[in-house]
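Newbie here. two chains, one complex. Structure please?
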Amino acid sequence: MTGFDLSAILTNPEFIAMLLHGIVMTFVIAIGSWLLAMTLAILLLALRFSPGRFGNAFVAGYVSYHRNVPTLVQLMLWYFGIFTLLPDWLSYWLASHNAEAIFAIIGLGLCQAAYFSEDLRSGLRSVSPGQMEAARALGHGYLSAMRFVLMPQGVRNALPPLINHSVSLFKNSSLGVVIGASELTHAVKEIENLSFRTFEIYLIGTLLYLFFSLLIMAGGAYLTMRADPAARTRA
Amino acid sequence: MINDIIAIIRDYWLLLLIGQYPNGPLGGLANTLILSALSIALAFPLSILLALARLSKWPFLRWPVTVLVYVTRGVPLLMLILWSYFLVPLLTGADVPSFVTMLTTLVIYQAAFLSEVVRAGIVALGQGQMEAAKALGHGYFGAMRFVILPQALYNMIPSILSTFVSTIKDTTLGYVINVPDLTFAASQVNNQLLTQPFQVFLILALIYYAICWSLTHVAYRLERRITRKRAGLTGAGAAAVIAPAKIISEQL
């Protein structure tokens, strides 16, 4: 082991290809689970606001489970547990289609949906009830009042926690390494095993994660600023 | 299914509870709880120092802490664990058990998150408290020690409890460097049984759920009580004091 030398990794085309593959898989997992989470979160929200106690209790249970069980354990339950209970044809299909990444997306997405739906719910709850009444008085139906009056305000209120949780989701994509998904952390560990340049490759991996997280945070700050009408008129 | 679960618990409850303790290192649930409690106990004083540094008027104190907070917010905990696994033995020159590696990581990670909570608590108190304390003859540290921190920290008790919950959830990542905790014990059980992974990991999830749910519930009750107490103590103008009691924590 010689001194600090980043070029030993950065000039090796094999390592660069592994890193790029890792970054792509990290984004596939992060974006895939984000989309799954957001879709589910909106469904959960609709169920929560709909009349009937069963739907409400279901959502409360769903949120409670996914917030109180460690994400890693949820992933393990999916990959090591539920995977084995599936019918043969489905497990064969999954195994030949990168099952690790699929289960990472499912596990992270379902978990994150609980957080997203709570963020949206508290955002909506902080919109004054008068807004709904006023919208209805102006001739909006329930759905159209939701769409044009309540949701825009609710989402704006919910933006800061949504962005924080999106960053967490991106960071949590690294948990995929435990179930064998070939994302960035996996690539970092592989390269470490091949090159023995632990310090250099960890530094590269850390800086990559930091760069993308800060990028998401900056994008979020920009969105928050854009969504705030007071800030817009000031500009 | 239910019978399998009961059988697994009957056969392996001791392993899940304390690991291989008399014949090996302490592990299982006991180790998970010890690791989390120790991390919080060490991270808490550190977080106060970090928060004070972050609020300091000297840039050479403020900048390093700001960088630390952004690094812990932007880099996955898993990556930080790998760093400690590599650096702690290198720096101390000793063969460090994975428990200590994990503890180091968690202390730094949670201290950075808690420092944001402490900072929010101090900022939410408002300038007036500090000015009044100084007018009464306290110096900076006297004012912090006797006026600002007692109020800010009291308001933060629920947040600290919820940080404890996320620490318990974070300890699961020790699995990657073979920390003998509850998750590790469960995967040992799974390796011995081989045929019932779903049942084993379901038990694991349920144990974590029971612990974290009860603690979250306690935090919620405490928060309501503190909010009410604060509102009663200071009357109508208590809005600013109530604000920091909002639970801020990282999820994992």
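Moderator note: The longest helix of chain A spans residues 13-49. Residues 17 and 187 of chain A are 10 Å apart (CA to CA). Thread marked as resolved.
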